[in-house]
Amino acid sequence: MPELRKDPVTGRWVIIATDRAKRPSDFVRESVMPRGVPVCPFCPGQEQRTPPEVLAYRNGNAPNEPGWSLRVIPNKVPALRVEGEIDRQGEGLYDKMTGIGAHEVIIETPEHLSTLATLHEKRIEDLFWAFRDRILDLRKDRRLRYILLFKNHGEAAGASLEHTHSQLIALPVVPKRVQEEIAGSRRYFDFKERCIYCDIVRQELEAGARVILETDHCVAIAPYAPRFPFETWILPRAHQSHFEEAEAPTLQSLAWLFRAMLRKMDKVLERPPYNLVIHTSPIQEGPNPHYHWHIELIPKLTKVAGFEWGTGFYLNPTPPEEAAQFLREAGLS
Amino acid sequence: MPELRKDPVTGRWVIIATDRAKRPSDFVRESVMPRGVPVCPFCPGQEQRTPPEVLAYRNGNAPNEPGWSLRVIPNKVPALRVEGEIDRQGEGLYDKMTGIGAHEVIIETPEHLSTLATLHEKRIEDLFWAFRDRILDLRKDRRLRYILLFKNHGEAAGASLEHTHSQLIALPVVPKRVQEEIAGSRRYFDFKERCIYCDIVRQELEAGARVILETDHCVAIAPYAPRFPFETWILPRAHQSHFEEAEAPTLQSLAWLFRAMLRKMDKVLERPPYNLVIHTSPIQEGPNPHYHWHIELIPKLTKVAGFEWGTGFYLNPTPPEEAAQFLREAGLS
Q1: What is the pTM of this model?
Q2: Is the ipTM of this complex over 0.95?
Q3: Whether B227 contacts chain A with CB within 8 A
């Protein structure tokens, strides 16, 4: 009998099709294999072809020269711009505002043919430090309310350039879905006086069936009501509302665990395209007791049945307990 | 300057990238051209290969024999089943229930190589009648709360069989996104004592810039804050909360307008894959003054940047005013 499961934070229902469960080999997909391109603007030596860097980790050399291991640049065709004033206006019954914000690209390595799964652990840790550094810098601009950090890996997941990179979008509003998640966790806190994510971590570690990997500071689980096959969440064990509060031990632990997760996914799902999103609290608010930052990692395995956008209803052919088992059993090599 | 626009019903913000506006030719995509397959279970003569029909429009002949012009069957691998009892249970802090519901397939024509854009207008009208007939039948089952009617056209939009068909999923819960839309329209009604969709129709017809097509009973517009390029909404002019309340003049008018829209899209966007979703009120509730059923039609033009699922934030490279103009100017032939 199929099961309807409710995501405890957002209240979203999903159908888990237990009796037509899909195994990894049932998903037809393209493997993501960087092939190399003749003139990649993200490669060392091509620094002049991008806007000037806003952050770089480098061993000597001047800015916008080779010698970096990670580089953050404004997006060449930004969705939002820092310049200008926020101007809210009506248009009959509609509302709009000027597109103030920031849109940056984090080039994760100078090596064109690397992926996050093949990079050294230290480079992954640097990526998380760069996320943190950019949040701490951008939140000084009080007009900005939320920072989205995400990665589209592979063309099928929306990446337009092959050279591995993440993106940052800083917004003058808190997006709907984020608001909803935060409101859901606040309702739980009002009722129980506990963080729902802390409770999830506790229950998952006790039950074990959906746990994929754990370290001293972090845990990777298949969520109870996943929208997509092999959807994975990575959470810090200790309560923390903002990603940018994370300190060295957490980020080190996260880097190891995240890289291990990607290697497991590459193994089980044959180098799938994926999307990564950091879920965190709005940047202008202080620490709170109800929301708990985490990472959502979603391999892109199924053709999107677009009706899900319209309905918020998801049909998932792989029970999370099975996905967790496949990933748990896969080695790290 | 890019614009942030707010969807007035759900409160969802989208970025409209006015200064990197994409025109139809900027989208790389696959055209959907039915090619024919040797043994299609939806073709006449293959009726024994599907579960027995629950509805058919036919000229004579026995059920589950050829001679039909439209046929509704239970999905062979249903996401939900009618048999059994609704059983709600906890699992620690989580909630689940048994997957009671219905999952049906509407085979829109016996002709394997047709699409809705090439079918006769009368066949499209029949499709809408079939939607209505199935709702009226299924709502007698008081356990069912909501009926999703949708169509995935083309493989890239999630269709797994080529022979043109729609789907129906009847659910024991009202999906999150539907609840949200209805709650948004109720808030507006509480404030203004008017239906927000009626106001949208009025404002759009006055402004004209986002109107694509209109008939006596229906209007097709590019919405003010579309999530996707060339997203189109089709609304009845007169207030009506439930799709199944629609009567012959509306359904006739809708059939003409919908077919015309598809022909325009096929012309401007070169036979794109698309998703169609009917947005309507929960089936067990009586008529209400705040919600207004409508159709959302979304051509699948862009690779899905999956972070949008996680954030509810959309980046749309084509302003709706431009999309509307392209579609308005395209002929119907």
Answers
A1: 0.91
A2: no
A3: yes
